[in-house]
Write a structure and sequence with these properties.
This protein has seven helices and eleven strands. By secondary structure, the protein is an alpha+beta fold. It has one domain. Strands 1, 2, 3, 4, 5, 6, 7, 8, 9, 10 and 11 form an eleven-stranded mixed β-sheet that branches.
């Protein structure tokens, strides 16, 4: 009995350390997402076109998503999402992206992914526990640079636009078949308790200070708080 009590005591002491490790991991993920946005968007001629950025409902970044022909449903990468609200970009939520058949090869380097929801339907997709790009969530490879006409044509037939960056090259990518799911465990850890994606992405939850650099980068390149009509 004494041994059991001792183990429980030791476990209780370890919980704060585990929580700290988890928080540090999430802070690092946010910082990596901020770096991806800064590096991609700082070269306008090779970035998400301004005509798309300025009307984005939501922006998602998956830094260093691993290439690989994994079993369907295996985890590829972890990312963060924020959505435009009337009071600024929302506090972030954490997502997973997995599966699919978009041609990644085992042994390749990590690839940064960027997703932009450009209408109400794309925003609603991100409120689901899980959805598959291309199956109910119309997506297209996003255009790069200042081609406003291409931006308009593509946005008329897609609610999600997707890009990838590998070996320094940023280009649209077809992510049809890839699943996007809410990472509720990481999101709850980040906020220190249960918070629903709907409340967070609608702007009802205050963003922790650790999210500020990421949110400032999104605002800098995708525009300030002027929520798209919902």
């Amino acid at each position: 009995m004494k041994k059991i009590l001792a183990l429980i005591f030791v476990g209780a002491l370890a919980l704060p350390a585990l929580a700290a490790d988890g928080q540090q991991k999430l802070d690092s993920r946010l910082d990596a997402a901020r770096t991806v946005i800064d590096q991609i968007m700082s070269v306008p001629d090779k970035a998400v076109p301004d005509s798309i950025a300025r009307k984005a409902y939501c922006v998602g970044v998956v830094p260093g998503m691993m290439k690989g022909a994994f079993v369907f449903g295996a985890e590829y990468g972890q990312g963060v999402v924020t959505c435009r609200t009337a009071n600024g970009w929302s506090a972030p939520v954490f997502i997973r992206m997995a599966g699919g058949s978009f041609g990644f090869q085992i042994g390749g380097q990590g690839t940064d992914l960027v997703l932009v929801a450009i209408d109400q339907k794309g925003f609603q997709d991100l409120l689901q526990d899980k959805f598959k790009i291309g199956a109910g969530a119309a997506a297209a490879a996003g255009p790069v640079g200042r081609d406003a006409q291409a931006s308009t044509d593509i946005s008329m037939r897609a609610e999600l636009l997707t890009w990838s960056r590998s070996r320094g090259i940023f280009a649209g990518i077809d992510l049809n078949g890839v699943s996007v799911s809410q990472n509720t465990e990481d999101t709850d850890t980040f906020y220190g308790g249960v918070q629903h994606f709907d409340s967070i992405l609608h702007g009802s939850v205050t963003a922790p200070e650790a999210a500020s650099p990421f949110l400032r980068a999104v605002e800098k390149y995708f525009g300030p708080a002027q929520a798209a009509s919902r």
